[in-house]
Amino acid sequence: MSNSPEAMTLDMSSASRGGWTQHDTQWVLSLFGTAVGAGILFLPINIGIGGFWPLLIMALLAFPMTFLAHRGLARFVLSSKQDNADFTDVVEEHFGAGAGRLISLLYFFSIYPILLIYGVGLTNTVDSFMVNQLGMESIPRIALSGVLVAFMVSLMLGGEKLLMRAFSALVYPLVAILLFLSLYLIPNWQMPAVSAPDIGELSNTLWLSVPVIVFSFSHAAAISSFANVQRRHYKSEAVAKSEKILKYTSLMLILFVLLFVFSCIFSLTPEQMAQAKEANVSVLSFLANVYDNPYIALLGPFVAFVAITSSFLGHFLGARESFNGLVTKQTKLGNATADKIGVAVMFITIWICAVINPSILGMMEAISGPIIAMILFVMPTIAIYKVPSLNKYKGRLSTYFVLVVGLLAVSALLFSW
C-alpha cells in the first residue's frame, strides 16, 4: 500500500481488468477505513439499549443498506459525461445549476458534521484513557482537543503520500485488533433475555436507529474520489469494477462490524449501555472502564483512537473536495485559496465543537445520519428517473428498498426536531 490509488491508474499494463488486483484491494481497505469510525464505536450503544430484536433486524438489513446505497451513489457519479467530474460537477450536469448548488451544499453538510463528531469522540477517548487507564489528571479540554485536531489535520496537509501511508499504517492493525477484541470478549457474553417484542416499541426503536445505522456504515465521503479513480483506471468497465469493489467492502464491513457489535452488546447490559451513552464515550472506552483486564484496557481506547483517526482522514478528504468545489463555483477564488480557507474554517470549528462536547449519538441521530441518507439514498434514486443513462434501474426492488430506507432516516430527523 505504498502507492496511492491515483498513481496506480498508470499501471494498467501490469494488471488484468477482469481479475482482482492490488488496486482493488487498496480501495477496499481505504473505504473500510473511511467507514470504521465513531459511528461503529457508538453503534453497539444505540442498538444495545433497544434489546435483542433491533439488533437481529439490524444484522439482517445492514448489508443491503450498505452495498445498495453506495453502489447507487457510485453509479450516479459515473453517469457523468465528463471524464474527471467530481460530485458537484455531476449534480450540476444532471439537475442544473440551482439544484446542483443545493445538493452540493447538502453533500458538504453530510460530511462536515462527522468531522465535528470525530473531534469530540477523539478528545473523549484520549481523556478517558488518560484518566481511567493511566491514572493521570485530565488535561484542560481546550488544549487536549487542539493538539488532537491539529494532529489529524496535519496528516491531511502532509500530502497524498503521507495520507496513504497513514491509511496503510492504520487499517491493517485496526482490522486485526477489532477481530481480536471481538473474539476475546466471547467468554464474557451474557445472552440477552428474548421475549416477544412489542411491535409499536420495536418499530419506533428501529425507526429512530436508522440514521445511526446509516451513519455507522457510511463511506459516502470517499465515493466521489473512488468513482473517478475507477473511471480513469478501468475506462468502460468502471461501473462493473466499482460495484465489485463496493460489494467486497460491504461484506468486509458487515462481517467485522457485526461480530464486533454482537460481542460488545452481549458483554454489557442495557443499563450499562445507557451509562455509556450518558458518559458520551465509545463502547470500547466504556468496556475498558468496566472490565479489569489489561488487554481491553489498552486495546479498547487504542482501537477507538485508530478507528476515529482513519475515518477522519477519509471524511476530511471528502469535505475538503466538496468545500473547494462549492467555493470556486460561487466565487472568483482559486482552488488554492479556497482550500486554505476551508482547512482553516474546519480546523477552528472542529476544535470548538470538541471543547463544547455535545452528545455524539444526538448529533448522529439529528444531523449526520439523515443528511447522509438524503445524499446516499434519496438523491441517487431520484436520479434514476431523471438521468437517461440510469433509467435502466427503474422499477427494481433494490431501488425501492434504498428509497424507503432513505425516507425513514430523513423522517427520523423531522421527528427528533
From TrEMBL:
CC terms in the record's Gene Ontology section: plasma membrane
InterPro entries, alphabetized: Amino_acid_transport_2
Residue ranges crossing the lipid bilayer per the database entry: 27-45, 51-69, 102-122, 142-159, 166-186, 206-227, 248-268, 295-319, 340-361, 367-385, 397-415
Subcellular compartments: Cell inner membrane
> Ubl conjugation: is it a keyword of this entry?
no
User: Which keywords are on file for this protein?
Assistant: Cell inner membrane, Cell membrane, Membrane, Transmembrane, Transmembrane helix, Transport
GO terms, biological process = amino acid transmembrane transport
Tell me which domain of life the UniProt entry assigns to the organism this sequence originates from: Bacteria
* Membrane topology category: Multi-pass membrane protein
Q: What is this protein called?
A: Amino acid permease
